[in-house]
Structures are given as C-alpha cells and as structure tokens.
Design brief:
The protein has 236 residues and is an alpha/beta fold. 41% of the residues lie in helices and 18% in strands. It has one domain: Spore Coat Polysaccharide Biosynthesis Protein SpsA, Chain A (Alpha-Beta Complex). The protein has a seven-stranded mixed beta sheet with strand order 3-2-1-4-6-5-7, sandwiched between helices.
C-alpha cells in the first residue's frame, strides 16, 4: 500500500535522542493522516561505536510504518539522505534532520500548506536562529551566494528543513550529492524545473550536547560545488 506521506529523518549520531524526536514526528503525522511512512536513516562509520543504528531498528520492530537504513557510510549528509529517499513510497516526500534543531511540528504545517496551496514544494526559512554566531554568518553568506549564482528562485534559506514535495516533483529530481551540498542541489533543480514553492518561517534551535558536524572545511567544499553547479546549468 502506498503511503500518503513519507518522512526521511537523518539520524546520524542522534543516539537515544532519536526516540523522542521520532515520536514527535509520529504524533504530528497522526494529526493529518494515519497513512504515513517514517524512514530513519542511521548510517554510520564502522569505527564510530554509534548506538543509533540499534536504536532505530528497535523502534521499527513493532511499527511496520517505520523503515530503517543502517549502512556503513560511503558519504556524508547527501549520501545518507539519498539512501533514505530511495526507500520512500509516499505520494508526498519529506526530508528533515533528526537532531532536534528543526521543529517536528513543521511537518504537519507543511503538509497542510502543500495540500491547501497545490504547490510542488514546501520548505522553511529560519526566521530565528539560536545556534552560534559563526553558523549565522556562514548561513547568511551561503544564501547570498546562492541568490547571486541562481537568481529568480526567491528562496530565503537554502539549507532549512523540512523540505516537502509531491511525488511528481520528487521524481523530476536527479540527485547525486554525497556531501553537505544536497539541499542546494535540490533547490537548484527545483529552480530548473520551475517548481511552485511555498516557504514557512521556523525557529532553529541550538544543540548543547555536541558540536555541529559542518566544519570550516565545508566552506571550501561549498564553493567548489557552487562553481561546478553554476557551470552545469549552462548545459541544461
């Protein structure tokens, strides 16, 4: 049976906190439909000693609507996301981080907006950020650069989630990013295909338990990917 909505949750090193976040997602999904599918992606490096894969498998044991992906990692966020998205059967496909910085309640709001507006995609922009000043500045520069290189889309916050789209829109994407560039790749292709996109404000919380996985070296990775993506657009 095809799910009404599939939600991919990125769980890398979330450990026991993924229990509470997953339950919040399920609670909000149940408010709009019982025909949902949750894909918990807990890929890991072999030497991590990460207990997240075992935890998500435990969550799936008694709930057939939960799928898990617990592979040895061959990439970073983009690769993880693509392994989860590949399992989605839903008429609506959603991607969200599972670290608690993104609000699970936004999934229900996005679902209602997508249905009401008849758009291709609903995404969020971080109206308020409670994380570090460095991340704030990094994000501001990143979004300005995106707008300069890929004008006309009108997106305020490229990397914000959840990103929710119809099955028809999702099937038009051809995603290849293995790294942190996946969000930008989604939005670049949404621009190319002239998606109708609705944006919602959200609050981005800080994580006190750990440092961000996005390091300073990612800046150079982003610049390389931006240059490559801009060049490829000339041939599309």
């Amino acid at each position: 049976m095809t799910a009404q909505i599939s939600v991919v949750v990125l769980c890398y090193k979330a450990s026991d906190s993924i229990r509470g976040f997953s339950q919040k997602v399920i609670d909000h999904l149940n408010e709009v439909t019982e025909n949902w599918e949750l894909v918990l992606v807990a890929n890991h490096f072999g030497e991590d000693n990460d207990d997240t894969p075992a935890i998500v498998r435990e969550l799936a044991e008694n709930e057939p609507r939960i799928k898990t992906v617990t592979l040895i990692k061959q990439g970073m966020m983009g690769w993880d996301a693509r392994t989860g998205l590949d399992l989605c059967s839903g008429e609506i496909v959603t991607l969200i981080d599972g670290d608690g910085q993104m609000d699970a309640a936004d999934i229900g709001k996005a679902y209602q907006t997508l249905r009401r507006e008849g758009c291709d995609m609903v995404t969020t922009y971080r109206e308020q950020r409670l994380d570090s000043r460095f991340r704030n500045v990094q994000s501001t520069v990143y979004n300005l650069l995106f707008k300069m290189l890929f004008p006309g889309l009108g997106i305020h916050d490229v990397n914000s989630k959840p990103k929710m789209m119809t099955r028809e829109a999702f099937d038009r994407l051809d995603l290849h990013s293995d790294d942190w560039f996946l969000d930008a790749e989604i939005m670049i292709q949404a621009r190319r295909h002239h998606f109708k996109i609705i944006q919602m404000p959200t609050i981005f919380r800080d994580i006190l338990e750990r440092r961000s996985f996005v390091k300073l070296s990612a800046v150079f990775e982003f610049l390389h990917n931006f240059a490559r993506a801009r060049l490829l657009e000339f041939f599309k």
